[in-house]
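FORM 7B: Structural annotation worksheet

SECTION A. Query
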Amino acid sequence: MSNEDTDQYRGFIRRLQREEHRPAALNDIKNLIAFKPAGEAINTIRDGGISKIVQCLNVSNTSHVDLTCEVLRICFEKFEPGDVVKNYTSHIMYLLRHEKSCVRRLAIEQVRKAVSTSPNLLPVPQYIDVYVAVAQLVSDTDVGVANEAVLITSNLPHEAYHKVLEEMRVALELNSSSKCNVFEVVVHISSKSYELFKMCADMKYVDFMVSELQTDDILYQVNILELLSRLVMKPHGINYLVKNGSLQKILGYVTELQSNPLKGLLIPGYMKFFGCIAHSYPKEIFEKHTVVFDTLFESIESADPAVLPVALDTLGFIGTTVEGKLCLAALGGKYTQAINNVSRLIRNSNTETKVRALNCFAGLMSIDKDPTVSRSSPVDHRVTLMTREWFRTLDSKPMETLFEICKNPFPDIKHAAFVLLDAVCQHQWGEEMVARAAGFIEFLMDRSIVYTKETNEAKYDIIKRLANSPAFDATIIGRLHTYVEQGPFYSESQLEVAMEDED
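SECTION B. Predicted structure
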C-alpha cells in the first residue's frame, strides 16, 4: 500500500477508540484492506497493528463482535498459512479463549491452516501453548469449533502429544459429547505408531474408554464402540485389549445384552467391533468367542432391519481374507445357512439390503483384497472349491442370475453387482461361467449402455481380468484387448470425431 493508505489505516484504528465511531471505522478498515494485493495489505497491517481491532471484541454488542471478526478475517486472509499465528501469537491465544464462539472459530481456523499446510510449520517448543489451547477446545460447546479442534489435535507434530494429552484429560470430566471428542483424538493419535499408542495407554485413556461402555447412555456406548473398532484394526490396539483383560470385559457386556431391552441398538456396535478383530485375527476370535458370531448369523437370518446392514457388512469384511474364509467355512452348518440367507437377500429384498448383500457376497468371493496373498501365487484350492459352492447358492443358474442383476436399472444395485462380478472373475471357475453365459460378454463390451463413472471403472477392471483368461477363444480375447486399450470411457463418438479431424 502507499503511505497514504497506511495513514488512512492508522486513522481508522484511532477512530476505533470511540464507541460511536467504531462500526464506521471497522467498515472503513474492511473496505481498505479487502481489495488490496496481499503484499501491500500485510505491510500496512503490520505497521498499524491489530491490537485495537482485537479490543473491539470486548463488547456485549453482538453485531459489533461479528463485524470485528469479519475485519480480522479479511486481514488474516492476506497472510500465508501460519504467519498469523507466528506474528500474532498472543492475540491468537486470546481469541482461542474468547467467550464468543465466532471469535474462537476465527482463531482456530488460522491454526488449522498452519497445521494442514505442514505439521512442522509451527515448531512445538515455541507454540506448545497454542496446541494445548486448541486441544482444550475439543470439548467446546460450539460443534464447529470442537470439530476443528479434533481435526487439528489429531494431526500435530508427535513431540507435542505428551503435553497435549496431559492437558486434554480435563475434558474427561465433562459430558459424553466432550469425552467422545477426546476419544476420537486418542484413536487418531494411537493409530500413528506404537509409541504414541503406548503414551495414550499409559495415561489410561484406553482403559477409560472401555470402562465407559458400562454407561446407560446408549448413543454414547455406540460411539465408543465405533472408536474402539478403529483402534483394534491396529495390532498394538488389539494386543493391549487382550493382555489387560479388556477384551474379555467387552465380551461379558455382549453376553449381558440378551437381557437388555435396548439390545437392538447396541448389537450392531458390538458386532462391528468383534468383526474388525476377526478380520485380522479370525482364528483366535472364532475359537474363543463364537457367541458373537451366533448373534451375527441370527441377525442375517431374522433380517432385522435394525441389525441386518451391519451384520452383512461385518460378514463380508471378515471373509475378505483367505484365513477368514477358511474360519467361516469351518463353522459348518451355521455358516452354510448364513450363505443361503445372503443369497436369498440378494434375490428378494429392498434396494438397500440388496446392495449390502451383494457387497457382502463380493467380500466372501474376493481374493484380491487379502494383503497377505500374492497375486502371482496360485489360489488356495480350498478357497477355489469353497467360493464356487457359495456362489452356486445364488440360484440354480447363478451367473445368469448375476447377469440379470447387472442389468438392473438402479445404479447402486448395478454397481454392487459389478463389484460382485469382479470378485467372481478373480477365480478361473468364475471366468468360465462368464464365458458360458449367453450374451454376457457382449453385454460387458457394449459401450452404448450408460453407467456411472464408478460402475464404468468396475466393468473395465472385469474386462482387464477377462482379457488374460484362457476361458475365451482368440477372437473374444482380441476384442477384449481392444476394449482395454481404448480405456473405460471410450465411445463411438470419439472415433467419429477423430475420423472427421483426419478428413
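SECTION C. Observations
The chain has four domains: 1-78, 85-244, 260-394, 398-503. The first helix runs from residue 3 to 15.

SECTION D. Sign-off
Analyst initials: ____
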